[in-house]
Amino acid sequence: MSPDQLFGQLLVGLINGSFYALLALGLSIIFGLLGIVNIAQGAFYMAGAYFSWLMLQTLGVNYWAALVLSPLMVALLGVVLEKFIVFRVYGPDHMPGLLLTLGLLLIIQGVFVYIFGAVARPYPTPDALRGGWDLSFVFLPKYRVWTVAVSILVCFATWFFIEKTSLGRTLRAANENPVLTRAFGVNVPALMTFGFGFGVALAGFAGVLAAPLYTVSPLMGVDLIITVFAVVVVGGLGSILGAVVTSLSLGVVEGFTKVFYPQASHMVIFVIMILVLLVRPAGLFGTEK
Amino acid sequence: MTEPLIKIVDLHARYGSSHVLHGVHLDVGKGEIATIVGRNGAGKSTTLRAIMGILRSRTGSIRIAGQETIAAPSEHIAWLGVGYVPEERGIFASLSVADNLLLPPIVAAGGMSIEEIHALFPNLRERGRSPGTKLSGGEQQMLAIARVLRTGASLLLLDEPTEGLAPAIVQRIRLAIDAMKARGQTVLLVEQNLRFAVKVADRHYVMENGRIVDVMDRAEVATKMERLQRHLGV
Amino acid sequence: MATIETAGIKRANGGRPLIKPALWTIGFAALLIMPFFVYPAFLVKMLCFCLFACAYNLLASTTGLLSFGHAAFFGSAAFTAGYAVKAWGVPFEVAVLVGTATGFFLGLVLGFIAVRRQGLYFAMITLALAQLVYFLAFQLPFTHADDGLSGIPRGYLLGMVDLNNNYAMYYTTLVICVIGFAITFRIIHSPFGSILRAIRDNQPRAISLGYSVDKYKIMVFALSAAMSGTAGALKAIALRLATVYDLHWATSGDVLVMTLLGGSQTLLGPVVGAVIVTSLHDYLAESGLPISVVIGTTFVLCILLFRNGIVGELKQRLKL
Predict the structure, then answer these.
(1) Which of A59, B99, C8, C10 is the 20 to 30 Å CA partner of B191?
(2) Do residue A180 and residue B86 have CB atoms under 8 angstroms apart?
(3) A99 lies within 8 A of chain C by CB
(4) CA distances from B225 to B44, B207, B208, B231 (A)
(5) Per-domain boundaries in chain B
(6) Which of B52, B103, B151 is the closest to A170 by Cβ?
(7) Least confident of A163-167, B136-140, B145-149, C288-292
(8) Could you tell me how many CB contacts below 8 A there are between chain A and chain C?
(9) Which residues of A touch C253 (CB under 8 A)?
């Protein structure tokens, strides 16, 4: 096994880890603020990819604009769904939320299959990011490095927003004690809508990044979300930093497994999940019971 | 006579199917400090929660600053200039002390500045970066009061601020309430500590089984202390 | 839960004591004559899912745990039973037992891991574990990955009845399903079932009373998995085909939707749900309308409006 293979897979592992991180981050925010585990996160990821493809096809909107516009459109979709449907399952029990979002996943996916067909659409890599850098021991495709870099940047920006800004502070407070936060004059329902929109926008953003890499298809989100669930069980739903660190690490582990034992690469994250569950049920960074 | 800052008429409230407030009548004039005293379970904290809109099953009338708020959501009530210090203090564990202080939005002009707050509660300045719940009980109480002082709220609801605190801290809280009075703020205070209550308040409402059963002005307290104590079972 | 507790015993409708037995009789008669009106092969498939949903609900109603990975048992059993018949030539009955046993033992293993958590985390873990099984299945040679295991012979029931006859297959399946339904009923109404419900309603109390709650949960999980295996084995043999789709999360989703749509608090709920969902699948597949959208929308409406499921709501409204 050559250094080329090794670093190549390390990069792929980081890419997968980046997507896990963006989706897990969105899941964490939505869960923290709304108490809902959004299994439809995979569908919003897919929608993000489709919106960017659609904008390119019909309006000639390029990748760079799509990076901003597509997540906004996904956020809008999320906000509409939250305002009319999702808010009805808020409450102490987490299961109705999971079940409702399962229904939404089926619907969103079905709609996209119906409109666009199940066929995968290619999305061109933007010109500025074609090609790569040829280091002596490995060839680094520009687009892949870009994907990892921008994902980590967005994760960091999200962390900064939540931990260091006043809106982030209000979000954290609403997360912990929504009743009291409201009693201080904060419009918590509006905040929750915003939180949902933001959480799904992260998934949509990941979708745009994924489009040139994986092609765009209606089922692209679902296998991903199941792996993200396993990642989230390992890392726990409590902490933002935990979600990101766990995601990237597991992505890398997956990548390495592909080098040494390819057949097991799909399964290694689930195996790790089982081990973590047996040893530390709350997850590595878990703040849940 | 000008309208009181808060006027409650025939307030009924329920926790689920349990009817806890049975027609409470209460008002506090601008700049006054009033207390609600009574035994455990009399409904004092419930009354504050009902005013704040935290307890949603309410009927009757609660007028704050001339506006009817019986059906209003909490956030609306806060913006009318009401600041709430809950019995459990409600310090956010996921926020630092400084963040806890800055969390409540400023709802009106005239609130205390950070410097003034630090002058009143020096401990809070030193502990700025600590997580909110790493503070002692007394410090948390001071933080809970400090943060509503910053917002410029004109009506302050304090739920058992001296409960379980050492005399030195109780003294600090007394100073804080004096500062509120000096600034012309209106205070509705729930207290079990009768000695503290009689020192600070202009008027006392006595509550029993979800009803106001007696009202006493400051001047009357000296002569009616015995009656007051009997209400409270001390 | 009062509905299940008192099913068949209480005359909730006062002056109409014969409604329930009458309904059951009509229902049963309908089942007997149905294959003469509806294509038997479709009915067999429907019955398999009725059994699957019933098995699923055994776990859900007694423990409150909603598994998102029951396809693992359904699909694995489909393959083991199918393989047993096709490659080893075992008789039908043995194949069904093989499938049931596959479900049971897989259920023990997965249950051991999953019952450590509840609610949300339990759901996510079962989903992930089933995905693991799904991937494993792709690695194993006898599943033939995407192609699946086809041409599974139906064989003979007890060496005598030719199951290639669709009617014979139907009635055999019906009998097995009824037995499964009866076993579920017995388990739910047994002391074991009561203890499970006690654990569900107040786990700390059950622990303080000395019950090893994990063991109970693992056992009912394994029983539920076993019966799911029976359903999978039946399906593979009746449809002569086992595919990795039987192990897919969509199948797990299907049985979850069936159970909740019909109503988890009743015995009949999952059956009704299974009938509705399989019929929808069949009907929509021909018409070209998006299946996911219809099922998803029905499911969402169910979550928002009929928390008790269709049968649960009917029971409440009609006071049965």
Answers:
(1) B99
(2) yes
(3) yes
(4) 20, 15, 17, 10
(5) 28-51+77-232
(6) B103
(7) C288-292
(8) 108
(9) 102, 106
- For an interface test with C, give the residue of A81, A99, A279 to mutate (most C CBs within 10 A): A99
ipTM: 0.91
Residue A203: what pLDDT?
Answer: 96
Burial (CB < 10 A; 0-12, 13-18, 19+), residue B65, is middle
The answer, yes or no, to whether residue C146 has pLDDT greater than 70, is no
How many Å apart are CA A101 and CA A115, to the nearest integer?
Answer: 21
**Is the CB of residue C268 less than 8 Å away from at least one CB of chain A?**
no
CB contact under 8 A, B78 and A179: no
Which among B184, B206, B209 has a CA at the least distance from the CA of B197? B206
Q: How far apart are CA C82 and CA C88, in angstroms?
A: 10
Write down the pLDDT at residue C1. Answer: 44
The answer to whether residue C226 is domain-embedded is: yes
What pLDDT, on a 0 to 100 scale, did the predictor assign at position A70?
A: 95
pLDDT of residue B190 exceeding 60, the answer is yes
Please tell me the predicted confidence (pLDDT) of residue C315.
82
Structural domain contains residue C166 = yes
User: What burial letters (b/e) apply to C34-47, b meaning 16+ CB within 10 Å?
Assistant: ebeeeebeebbbbb
Contact A226 C296 (CB under 8 A): no
A175 contacts in chain B (CB < 8 Å): 94
Contact at CB, C249 and A89, closer than 8 angstroms? no
**Quick check: B92 and A173 CB within 8 A?**
yes
Give me the residue label for tokens 């809950």: B86
Distance CA C288, CA B53 (A): 52
Q: Does the CB of A159 have a partner CB in chain B at under 8 Å?
A: no
The answer to whether residue B20 scores a pLDDT higher than 70 is: yes
Quick one: pLDDT at residue B33?
A: 94
Going through A117-274 in order, the beta strands assigned E by DSSP cover: 132-135, 138-141
Whole-angstrom CA distances from A251 to B51, B98, C256 are: 52, 37, 30
What global pTM score does this model have? 0.86
* Rounded Cα–Cα distance for residues B93 and A101 (Å): 30
> What fold does the segment set B28-51+77-232 form as a domain?
Rossmann fold (3.40.50)
- pLDDT of A1 reads 62
Q: Which residues of chain A fall short of a pLDDT of 70?
A: 1, 286-289
C128 found inside a domain: yes
User: Dihedral through CA C206, CA C208, CA C210, CA C212, nearest 10?
Assistant: 60
Contact B102 A166 (CB under 8 A): yes
* Count of A-B CB contacts under 8 Å: 58
Give me the pLDDT at residue B36, please.
93
User: Which chains does A contact via 3+ CB–CB distances below 8 A?
Assistant: B, C
Whether C309 is in a domain gets the answer no
Interchain contact A175–B (C-beta under 8 A): yes
Residue C5 has pLDDT above 50, yes or no: no
The domain tally of chain C equals 1
pLDDT of residue C252: 95
Alpha-carbon distance of C72 to C130, in angstroms, equals 5
C and B touch per CB criterion (3+ pairs under 8 A) = no
Is the Cβ of A148 closer than 8 Å to some Cβ of chain C? no
User: Which pLDDT score is estimated for A141?
Assistant: 87
